[in-house]
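Fill in residues.
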């Protein structure tokens, strides 16, 4: 079965085409600057030359039509016909409490995604646009949605509730939902497979750290706690997001600086984190370069980032009464040896012992970076959310027949 996986943003659309007989990627690409007359489509067919096309793409329906044209192009395509695509999987950030797993798209499912627009205003609306565009271009082809929040629906009430008036949960469902669930689920499963141990027997802390970042405590294969909350703002210090802070900071700053709700929301999501402390960049590569050069602002940003990351690892070890495996994944987790090294240096009380030479090796494969004597396995595992979505899509489509 050939499946198309789509991750739609407000002005972008990422895609991967899979042949699920062997889970191989036939092609992948990105449409950028949707809504403009100079939109860019970058198409990367496996075994053929990449192609880039600039054209007017004003909305997502046209974007997907352009993608399908490239997938079936005589020179750059990998399909004889669009009819070869038997299902489409979509990434959706917020599924609220309604979805504990991926789901076949129905009018009711789309209505629920729309109902959650307030909780993910930057992500859920584009997801609906992607679904509608798929249905318009490929009528009759089943669509499946995979939710970033679904994996975390196993959290206990004592973990996901906030200590605020209960009526706010009952009326507005204000609670911890988490994010990056597809990634946390994928790498925790791969970790168990790599170690050849039953996931049911493992306590795993998965560190998905990129420009957005979250940690999850995975016990027995299920999420028992995660660092992002009602929205992706809570938790770790990130590229441009503040992460945890005293809630009174919001009202205090609004009063002193005469900021609106929108302005303070923008400050916390787009102008905080590494960018705010360094004053120069939200990119960990730039921060690391500045730290190595002894620049004070970049050094402070690096140290704050590492400290908060390590503090959460310690908290989740306490939450699970121990830890067997720590997994680093996503952009920073997979590529920054120095972040991994400095974090693990101060986890010796848990029995973590890092092999610094193994840690320096760059590889696109799962690998161990702890020593044979380490009481905790430390792994680097490249995440693959698209493959996870493709697997769920295949399962649900086959199940529905």
């Amino acid at each position: 079965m050939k499946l198309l996986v789509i991750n739609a943003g407000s002005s972008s659309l990422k895609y991967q085409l899979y042949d699920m007989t062997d889970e191989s990627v036939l092609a992948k690409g990105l449409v950028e600057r949707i809504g403009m007359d100079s939109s860019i489509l970058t198409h990367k067919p496996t075994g053929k030359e990449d192609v880039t096309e600039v054209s007017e793409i004003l909305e997502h329906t046209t974007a997907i039509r352009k993608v399908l044209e490239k997938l079936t192009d005589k020179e750059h395509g990998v399909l004889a016909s669009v009819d070869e695509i038997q299902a489409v999987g979509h990434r959706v950030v917020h599924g609220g409490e309604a979805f504990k797993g991926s789901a076949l798209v129905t009018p009711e499912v789309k209505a629920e995604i729309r109902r959650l627009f307030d909780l993910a205003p930057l992500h859920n609306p584009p997801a609906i646009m992607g679904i509608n565009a798929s249905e318009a271009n490929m009528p009759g082809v089943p669509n499946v949605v995979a939710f970033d929040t679904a994996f975390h629906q196993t959290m206990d009430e004592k973990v996901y509730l906030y200590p605020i008036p209960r009526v706010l949960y009952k009326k507005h469902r204000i609670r911890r939902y988490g994010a990056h669930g597809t990634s946390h689920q994928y790498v925790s499963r791969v970790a168990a497979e790599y170690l050849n141990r039953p996931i049911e027997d493992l306590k795993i802390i998965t560190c998905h750290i990129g420009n957005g970042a979250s940690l999850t405590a995975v016990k027995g294969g299920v999420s028992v706690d995660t660092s992002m909350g009602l929205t992706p703002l809570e938790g770790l210090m990130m590229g441009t997001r503040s992460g945890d802070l005293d809630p009174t900071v919001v009202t205090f700053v609004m009063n002193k600086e005469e900021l609106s709700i929108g302005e303070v929301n923008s400050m916390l999501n787009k102008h905080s984190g590494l960018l705010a402390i360094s004053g120069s960049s939200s990119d960990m590569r730039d921060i690391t370069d500045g730290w190595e050069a002894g620049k004070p602002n970049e050094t402070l940003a690096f140290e704050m980032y590492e400290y908060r990351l390590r503090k959460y690892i310690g908290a989740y070890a306490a939450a699970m009464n121990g830890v067997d495996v720590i997994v680093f994944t996503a952009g920073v987790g997979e590529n920054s040896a120095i972040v991994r090294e400095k974090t693990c240096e101060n986890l010796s009380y848990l029995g973590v012992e890092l092999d610094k030479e193994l840690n320096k090796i760059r590889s696109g494969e799962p690998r161990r970076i702890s020593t044979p004597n380490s009481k905790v396995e430390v792994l680097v595992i490249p995440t693959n959310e698209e493959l996870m979505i493709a697997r769920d899509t295949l399962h649900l489509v086959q199940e529905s027949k």
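The two ends are 14 Å apart (CA to CA).
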